[in-house]
């Protein structure tokens, strides 16, 4: 792994989230069935969901694996990250990435699809972050609102991506 800007690597997977950071937990149902789950996992792990939100994604691999460098661009903002963990099994698929130098925040964010025991498919965003520079500090509540809106946007985009219409 390259230089990350926080010490709590992987806790969006293992929990609990560390003190001293803003926490985000967002969960929404995106459909049901194993096909929906498979499509959701693939969209997350190949960065397709992120691209479909309108974010500019550059990655040094086509699929999330630990160590993959990812830069998320939104408007003039560039946010360098690195994939720090992935999960891909019959019930969960997704990844977590952490902030690298140059990111306006410091912390980690995870995007996971999960197939529950009833067959429902859920999308979850889990994150912890704090400002890493002046821009984020000045943004204050607006930056927090933006992070919540982006999580919701990911959920609605993913729901549309995995819904099969006859």
Given this structure, which CATH class is correct?
Alpha Beta
Question: What portion of the residues fall into strands of 2 or more residues?
Answer: 35-45%
Specify the CATH homologous superfamily.
START domain
Please give the count of helices: 4
User: Which residues form runs of ≥5 with pLDDT under 50?
Assistant: none
Q: How many separate domains make up the residues?
A: 1
Number of strands: 7
Query: What value does the Rg take, in angstroms?
Result: 15 Å
Oligomeric organization of the protein chains: single chain
Mean pLDDT: 92
Secondary structural class: alpha+beta
Give a description of the structure.
The protein has 166 residues and is an alpha+beta fold. It has one domain: START domain (Alpha-D-Glucose-1,6-Bisphosphate, Chain A, domain 4, 2-Layer Sandwich). The chain is 30% helix and 39% strand. The protein has four helices and seven strands; from the N terminus they run αβααββββββα. It has helices spanning 11-14, 34-45, 48-52, 134-162; strands at 22-32, 56-59, 69-74, 77-88, 92-99, 105-115, 120-131. α2 (34-45) runs antiparallel to α4. The longest helix has 29 residues, at 134-162. The protein is globular and about 45 Å long. The termini are far apart.
């Amino acid at each position: 792994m390259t230089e990350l800007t926080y010490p709590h690597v992987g806790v969006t997977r293992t929990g609990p989230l560390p003190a001293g950071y803003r926490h985000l937990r967002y969960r929404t149902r995106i459909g049901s069935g194993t096909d929906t789950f498979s499509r959701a996992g693939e969209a997350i792990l190949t960065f397709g969901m992120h691209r479909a939100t309108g974010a500019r994604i550059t990655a040094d691999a086509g699929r999330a694996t630990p160590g993959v460098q990812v830069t998320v661009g939104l408007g003039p903002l560039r946010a360098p990250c690195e994939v720090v963990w992935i999960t891909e099994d019959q019930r969960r698929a997704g990844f977590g990435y952490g902030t690298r130098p140059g990111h306006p925040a410091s912390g980690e964010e995870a995007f996971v699809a999960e197939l529950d025991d009833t067959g429902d498919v859920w999308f979850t965003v889990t994150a912890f972050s704090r400002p890493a520079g002046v821009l984020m500090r000045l943004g204050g509540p607006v930056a927090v609102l933006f992070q919540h809106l982006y999580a919701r946007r990911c959920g609605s985009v993913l729901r549309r991506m995995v819904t099969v219409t006859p």
